[in-house]
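Quick one: co-fold with adenosine-5'-diphosphate.
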Amino acid sequence: MQRNTIQQRFYRPLERQITLGRPSIRRYVGLLALVLILVVWQVIASLRLYPSFIIPPPGAVLEKFITVVQDGRLWLHTSTTLVEVLGGLALGVSAGVVLGYIIAKNQIIEDLLSPVIVALQSTPVVAYAPLLVIWFGSGPNSKVLTCALTVFFPMLMNTVVGIRNTPAPLRDLMRSLGATRAQMLTRLEIPAALPVLLNGLKVSATLSVIGAVVGEFIWANAGLGFLINLSRNQYDTPLVIVAVLTLALMARALYSAVSYIERRALAWQQRTRRD
Amino acid sequence: MPASISVQGVSVEFRAPDGGPLPALGPVTFGLDAGSLVCLVGPSGCGKSTLIRVIAGLQTPDQGKVCLDGEPVTKPSRRVGLMFQDANLMPWRTVIDNIALPLELAGVPAAERREIAMKLLPGLGLADFAGAYPGELSGGMAQRAALGRVLIQRPDALLLDEPFGALDAMTREQVSSDLLALWAQERPTILLVTHDIHEAVRLGDRVLVMSPRPGRIVADIAVPLPRPRRVSDTYQAEFGAIAQAIRQAIENS
Ligand SMILES: Nc1ncnc2c1ncn2[C@@H]1O[C@H](COP(=O)(O)OP(=O)(O)O)[C@@H](O)[C@H]1O
Ligand SMILES: [Mg+2]
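Sure, here it is.
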């Protein structure tokens, strides 16, 4: 039996099945890989092939971790970076969505802005981050900006694509029902673009941590990026590793948060008839 | 109150891929009496959908005008309901919320509009599917939900563009019979585009025949058969004669 074309566009049962219906045993396989890495690491460290400031044993890292948790340093730097990341995400995502919506709706504005956007987008943030730090100082502001700029472009692109993909027949339907501009946005454009928007948000969540750390690497007084730089200069490799792992966890947690929102908001995608 | 519709010298041109003009429709002139059910048949690509969009106020004609109860149509009106070949349901809304959409846009409070929509469900054969998502429906059920969505508007005119085109023969007869029953109750003026001549004769008071692109009305054939008409009546002689006349008009156009 034929299905309506919009439904087809959103019809992705396989992808869902794989992520949701994953048997628990496969999750443990992932854990096993982690354990293996730890074992290999321990073995290499025990063989003392390299000096311990190059490859410290896992135990030294754990010890360091406990120390910096207890003296509050880890929390100080983590919270600094987290605030920068969340601020940057909020700024970059909202700017990207708003400008993306305007561009999607306005051919002239797109023609006007696209050369600037393409130029900026193809320049790595690392390249112009020093400028931002010069202009906005060594405090969190410049990091919020490097982070915002990093997440801005994927969010902008996804918004343009999402809004442009609003199915034309549904647009006609809304018009025929006398929908206002605001109703068009809230009842059609946003829900229709939501899968693409949330995808953009997932990408942004991962990139946001990179964005903030890039800023911190250049010039900062606090933050996990700063901590990595500092402890590297002091040959405190265990502390470098602690900071790196904390960053990885932060990125992962942000990604999971967006995934969770996505599963809740797009629950309808899983409710599909199979025939 | 059913609306009368008059189409006066309407023509539409599109731009062809090579940049030149592409006459898609007309000029066409005809009228629909308030409360009548008129079918429109014509070869594919002759401008039927374009005509529907013009009458609905979704597209401005290059020439001519459309009047609803004597008033020129300049933008879509809530008095006019639309249905297309695709059910066009919003996949993120449940059946009940899809059906209630017109009321929601008109500002009817949530509890009230749900109650009204719930009352429509049994008549549409969707009583057990209020909370289902469109992805869970069969083609026929989706199209019935779409029918529910136009009916909740209580439209004075219904423009139906091959609304059963995507359904298999059996489902198609069922859904079109549902439509007839509802028309008998509320009597909105209906313009129904179909490519099925028998369906046109079974449903219509009149059948308009269009020529190939740019479509014009080449025949206006009355169907003076008594109602209600059953699917089995399709095999009777008077029925066949009218179908024959329509086929001839299409071939001669
Ligand atoms: N938006 C458009 N732009 C350009 N050409 C169009 C457009 N819509 C329809 N057409 C053309 O106009 C003609 C009539 O189309 P349509 O009204 O959809 O025909 P029908 O519904 O009778 O099959 C076709 O040749 C079609 O290709
Ligand atoms: Mg058509």
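If it helps, Residues B 48-49, 161 surround magnesium ion (ligand 2) (CB under 6 Å).
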